[in-house]
Design goal:
Layout (H helix, E strand, L loop, with lengths): L4 E6 L4 H13 L3 E4 L10 H11 L7 E6 L3 H7 L7 E3 L3 H11 L3 E5 L5 H13 L6 H7 L2
Parallel strand pairs: 1-2, 1-3, 3-5, 4-5
Helix pairs in contact: 2-3, 4-5
């Protein structure tokens, strides 16, 4: 059975997109945990990346979504956690491959670099794509 729990967080630049994605997820049966931020007031993205990473630490099936201006800062902050495989994705192709080949558990997107429609399509592919295992499992174990 598909895990319908997801954790989401953003900084101020990603706040508006986060709120739209959060609404979509809730309307589609997901139990969404929001780790902030709660406004467009300037804030520090590592704080929210760290909150999300800690929130999914004890559930290996849990996935997360992080959004900042470019997605770069969030991905760098998240990947400092050993249980996280955060991937900055720009489209459905990168989302599909990072799930199939890298078993990424956190999707990072840049609110200033991806259009809203493409962000939604990228998220859907990320959430719907399964890890392929096999040779990819061996490679991930090398991390």
């Amino acid at each position: 059975m598909e895990n319908k729990k997801i954790v989401i967080a953003s900084d101020h630049a990603g706040y508006d997109l986060k709120e739209k994605i959060k609404k979509y997820l809730a309307e589609n049966g997901y139990e969404v945990t929001d780790c902030g931020t709660n406004s467009t007031d300037s804030c520090d993205y590592p704080e929210f990346a760290n909150k999300l990473c800690l929130a999914i630490k004890d559930d290996p099936e849990m996935k997360g979504i992080l959004i900042c201006g470019t997605g770069i800062g969030m991905s760098m902050a998240a990947n400092r956690h050993s249980h996280i495989r955060a991937a900055l994705c720009h489209n459905e192709f990168t989302a599909r491959l990072t799930r199939q080949h890298n078993n990424a558990n956190v999707l990072c997107m840049g609110a200033r670099t991806i259009g809203e429609e493409l962000a939604f399509e990228t998220m859907k592919v990320f959430l719907d794509t399964e890890f392929m295992g096999g040779k990819h499992e061996r490679r991930i174990n090398m991390f």
